[in-house]
Write a structure and sequence with these properties.
With about 220 residues, this protein is α+β, with helices and mostly antiparallel strands. The protein folds into 3 domains: about 80 residues, Beta Barrel (Elongation Factor Tu (Ef-tu), domain 3), CATH 2.40.30.20; about 80 residues, Elongation Factor Tu (Ef-tu), domain 3, CATH 2.40.30; about 30 residues, no CATH class. The protein is about 15% helix and about 35% strand. The chain has 5 helices and 12 strands.
């Protein structure tokens, strides 16, 4: 598990592409401290397993499913990525619970400066927007952020403070770039519990009973 509090920005040193998968070598420093083979490092929001450690690099394999669901397949040599080691039980949970298993990608459609903050507007698939709740949490390229506004069924906004701007890659991206999105896992578990059925009658196609009224009545909003 992770918190979405980025520890450092890494740099892609090499990419070895297979037929459906790839292997990444990433230059880093802080996240290598006390890291062992088999440990997890969240890379642009994706939980990757460390397969090799060098003096200032680590390597990780990226499987086909991850390439399909994330923006890791679009990385280039010299590209920058957000990095975070797995959460220790003694750490403060400064962000929110992040699994490193992203739901899908979104597209950046605008950056707007407002005093010392930057508004970032993102377009996402309707299938995951049901989990994007105003004032709720979302991980964008592994960064724990608060959803400030949900505009419609496909658009939401976050506000990036100066510290987040300087410590992550988000505002260095361009309009049209994709970002990895992981919605708050708690909402997904609640939906599963409420829609699960033991019958064989298309239980996976059952529609969610979670509505804004339901969340308000039960104290979630």
């Amino acid at each position: 598990m992770f918190t979405g509090i980025i520890e450092e920005i890494g740099v892609v040193q090499s990419i070895k592409n297979g037929s459906k998968s790839s292997a990444l070598t990433i230059k880093a420093s802080k996240v290598l401290e006390k890291t062992k083979l088999g440990d997890s490092i969240c890379t642009n929001g994706v939980c990757l397993t460390v397969t090799n450690i060098g003096d200032s690099t680590f390597q990780a394999d990226v499987m086909a499913e991850t390439l399909k669901r994330s923006n890791l397949g679009k990385l280039v040599i010299g590209g920058k990525v957000n990095l975070e080691r797995a959460l220790m039980l003694s750490d403060r949970l400064g962000g929110h619970i992040v699994s490193g298993h992203i739901d899908n990608t979104g597209e950046i459609i605008s950056f707007i400066n407002e005093d010392n903050a930057i508004w970032v507007t993102i377009k996402a698939d309707k299938k995951i927007m049901k989990y994007v709740i105003e004032k709720g949490s979302i991980a964008i390229d592994g960064i724990s952020l608060t959803v400030a506004y949900v505009i419609d069924s496909e658009i939401f906004k976050v506000s990036v403070i100066p510290h987040t701007k300087s410590e992550t890659t988000l505002v260095s991206k361009k309009i049209g770039d994709t970002v990895n999105l992981e919605c708050d896992v708690i909402g997904k578990y609640i939906e599963k519990f409420l829609t699960f059925s033991n019958s064989n009658e298309s239980k996976l196609e059952k529609t969610s009973t979670i509505t804004e009224d339901f969340l308000i009545k039960n104290g979630f909003l």
